[in-house]
Amino acid sequence: MTYRIAALFFSLLGLLCTSSPVFSEEGDVYIKRVELRGTRRIDAAGLLVRLSTRESGVLSLEQIRQDVETLYGTGYFDDVAAESEGVEGGVAVAFVVKERPFLVEVVYAGNKTISRERLGEQIALKTQSFLSPRDLHASVQKIMLLYEAEAFPNTQVTSLIQPRSEGQVAVTFTIKEGRRAHIRSIAFGGNAAFSVNILKKQMETETYFWATSWLTESGRYKKDVLDADVEKIRAWYLNHGFLNVKIDPPHLELSEDGKWFDIALSISEEMPFKIGKLDVTGNRLLDRTVLHPLIQSQEGAPVNRGQIRQDVARLTDAYGQRGHLFAAVVPQVVPASDDSHRVDVTFQVTEGEPVSVREIRITGNQTTRDKVIRRELRVNEQERIDTQKLQRSLQRLHNLNFFENIEVVPEPVAPGWIDLEVEVKEKSTGTFSVGGGYGSPDGAFFTVDTTIGNFTGRGQLLRLKADTGSRRKTYSLTFKEPYFLDANLSATVDLFNTTRDYTDSYIEKRVGSDLAFGRAFSEHVNAGFSYTLATLDIRDVTDTAPRLVQDQAGKTLTSAVGLTLSHDTRDFIFDPKSGSRHALSLEYAGTFLGGDNDYYKAVFDSSRFFPLWIGHVLSLHARVGYAAAMGGTDTEPKQLPVGERFLVGGINTVRGFGYGQAGPTDPVTDEILGGNKALFFNVEYIVPLVPEANIKGVLFYDYGGAFNESEAIHRGGLRQAAGFGVRWISPIGPLRIEWGYNLNPREDEPVLEQEFSIGTLF
Q1: Closest C-alpha among 270, 277, 279, 281 to residue 300
Q2: Does 467 share its domain with 557?
Q3: Is the distance from CB of 620 to CB of 614 less than 8 angstroms?
Q4: Each residue of 84-108: pLDDT tens digit?
Q5: Domain identity same for 468 and 564
């Protein structure tokens, strides 16, 4: 910092020797004029009003010193000096400044890996402002840190100031990226209680592996990620009783060729602690019989900091459900006085007063109508708050999939009263996608999909979709009103036209519509009623077609009613990580409804999701179905329509088999027959590969099959497959590429099935 008031001091000494009357009777020196000199872009008058030195005021060296600091603190000047000269009746004070260069352009050279947009987000420099040497130096450091985070440890960054006209300058950052380094090894020292493999599982940082790191970006050194990994390892130890664990900062060693990092972590474990006594104090509203069963920590067990946090959450939630929103539970962990390595844990409760909701305000919704948001809330105005209902409200709003971000902020307004502000940030719910490719079971395909998920801001769904392929053509139009007539009743209309070619032996065409109504009977229980009217046309039947198909050739009309009952506790229905869904559906078609086909069908479907660690999820799924035709005579009983039979095999049932190949087939032609019974199970282990892009990997095991009328479900007919795949929750829907291996292939059955699809995950 350069500013001077020495010139002013010597000027004042000269005033003592002058004959001009500059002093008042009290000995004060008056200021007759104040000037700001040297400004080119800055408005001098605007700065002078910010100074305490004013005309007609008394001269003060302390005030002038403060004004010099004020001018320099604006960031506009490299140099500030104060000068004075005697004038008639007093002194004239001048602040002489030197403006900093005015930055008009920032240029990057040599950046190949990181875009200029990302670099611009990091630097502290802004164009059309004065250039600060401090900001310039900080910008160089931030660029180097950014490259270090991208595993370029030897990056060199230099800055060059290039003058332009009239005090303007441009800054050029020249970047020499060098070579990217990857992590060759991760070593631990001092870890006696836990193996290296266990500790590595707590880390996001991984060693480089040539086969996958190019896709997942694993094996790159990122300082912030490694620092977070150290805290994860520390949390692991704290959750297993090692309260005095110490972990030194990671030691990094770069190889001589600059290609590899070797990372070493040194741990001092010391002795683990166990829980001595557990107690709750400060509780008046709820007694021990209510609170103690909520505590999962146990006396004599190792101290688990994560478990104690969960206990605090459960205790706090117990009060929150009773309106005590601001109840606080603080765990007091007191070591025993002896060397027993035990601690007593006491949960200190501050209950607070119950609060009620005075008003709920909705903000941030530009398109979505207020009522669309309010009807998902499970807390009401003028009612006592319930934190469990508040959490469910957030979950329901997320499941709308209309918003990028949702925040609910309680604001105290009076004793015992709060306002809730629900702040949302909307995202685009309308998509138009065009795609194509090759996928089982339909061969080459082309798809067009237009979806509006929040039609007119009323929460309605409108979707028009067309799939055309070498073996299937599907056109559909769907409209859903989630709150029909503003009641707790959903209404869905679906028009469809589907044509499928079964390996050139026959063609199945379905044209019709569905009308469905649904109602929620509780937070997790829903029921629905549907009516379907559709024509089924079996045509172009060849002599090689199965007898079952030949017998049903022609056009028939199906008129059917359906009932569904479901229980759904999934956290996020579009990409669940926890919870479950169980559903039972019944369908009945009869001639008394005006159709040609008589049958009934029952399907039970169950899925459950278990969150594991760092985004890993275990998914279990099962489906069992039974269908049967009704009517006819003993000699000519009616048959179950071909289009209503269960086809097992393919990407949505049992992978590793072609479409319908895990069920009955014609013994002569090997054509798919389908069955009237089906049972299959799916076990999936889902791993995030690129979390930012929502790309995941999956390992799976499938077991199941379909069975015809002449046989019962038996183990010999259940087929097994296992495999892996990649999934991307893309803007146009879930994309899946999966490889399934037939674990017990029969004669002429392929061992591997590669499948690709765009659609809904089961």
Answers
A1: 277
A2: yes
A3: no
A4: 888 887 888 888 888 888 888 889 9
A5: yes
